[in-house]
Amino acid sequence: MSGRIGRYSVYIKPLFGLIDLVILNGTILFFQTNITYKILFSIYISVLWIILSIKNKFYDTKRFSKVIQVLASLIRQFLIFGLILYAFIGFFKQPNISRLEMGKYFVAIIGLITITKYTLLFLLSKYRKVFGGNIRKVVVIGDNKKTNQLIKIFKDKPEFGYRYQKKFGVKDKDFDLETCFYYIVENEIDEVYCSIAELSNDQLYRIVNFTENNLKVLKFIPDNKDIFTKKLIFNYYEYIPVLSFREIPLDDSINKFLKRTFDILLSLVVLIGILSWLTPLIALFIQLESRGPVFFRQLRNGLDYREFYCYKYRSMKPSTSSNQATRGDARVTKVGKFMRRTSIDELPQFINVLKGDMSVVGPRPHMVKHNEEFAQKVDKFMVRHFVKPGITGLAQVSGFRGEIETKKDIINRVKYDIFYVENWSLLLDIKIVILTVVNAIKGEEKAY
């Protein structure tokens, strides 16, 4: 299976946000506002700016966004932030604060952040155009007026960061989807644009399955802009309407940054607060029952189908067999049975989280040989690899953990995993972590 190549730059949006926070906190020093609790004010404006930015999608500026769209987002952001700013006076009872100086500060940050935002977006577009960075390789399936107009935009607007590679004419005599798929894989194409008007339902179905199973971004060019549904993501490239089949929240750098921060903080708490003293005890019990290594590692597939070593406490007798444990498996030790029942054997995976191979919450990673098997048998199985695998996941707290006994088990697990991929939020992660702890305390029937 091929992975997604040339992903969006992870650090662009967090960098934009960090620069704005520096402006917010640095500019106040130049005004005599008479703020008593300066550290509290700094925390207040920083936290609420971040929350407001996420709510307004302030940093969700597309590479094809127009100047007027950026201006609209700036206006929305500052209209609400102005209210937040003056609310500090009443909320924290600061009657001595100068309203006039606060007003000057507000006008100053509007100007500075606006100029900075447009400057950074301009530099980013020049970076794409001049240096060829932050590029997405694309192909177009279909040959009509709209596809040709879109291709012209790709060629004429290098600042958008799309590198047009090839067009496949559906009506051409030698057109073949398998040839198209082979080209996409071999040339490491990132995005596929399809003209809905020229493709049959069967062809669309095959293209959807191919892009899903090969981790390619699929977007549609409609023949009529009124055909899209609420489930599709609608954008304009200049004047050409383009539909995205699936939007993944964790593709957004702000969301990715929040999730990674949550992962690191929770991992440090577990590693320092729990594993630092628990590991020697676990090691002693493991060694008393069976000689061998304390830790067990196994190759798993993670983000973009990349392989990594997943860590666990050894819960089975040393064996040459790498098969998954089954009900009543004689290889599982007595201490191993307890660890598996309470999920303690999974705790070393917080090392994987800290390394960046895994997340605290996400689709559970499978053994490599099982992945290859399920990818062939279960539709959209590969969608799970659009995000990092997790120590726990929505499927696991919903009753689908442990051994895959029937095809229905893996199908339901994939359904929950895809729902998680498409509907991620930090609150959902926190909910899943809480449910995991509760289930670990109660013990789970399928944990063997």
UniProtKB/TrEMBL annotation:
Family: Belongs to the bacterial sugar transferase family.
Ranges where the Bacterial sugar transferase domain occurs: 259-441
Taxonomic lineage of the native organism: Bacteria, Pseudomonadati, Bacteroidota, Flavobacteriia, Flavobacteriales
UniProt source species: Aquimarina gracilis
Subcellular location: Membrane
Protein name per its UniProtKB record: Exopolysaccharide biosynthesis polyprenyl glycosylphosphotransferase
UniProt entry keywords in alphabetical sequence: Membrane, Transferase, Transmembrane, Transmembrane helix
Transmembrane regions: 12-31, 37-54, 74-93, 105-124, 264-286
Listed PANTHER family: COLANIC BIOSYNTHESIS UDP-GLUCOSE LIPID CARRIER TRANSFERASE, UNDECAPRENYL-PHOSPHATE N-ACETYLGALACTOSAMINYL 1-PHOSPHATE TRANSFERASE-RELATED
Record membrane topology: Multi-pass membrane protein
Pfam families to which the protein is assigned, alphabetical: Bac_transf (PF02397), CoA_binding_3 (PF13727)
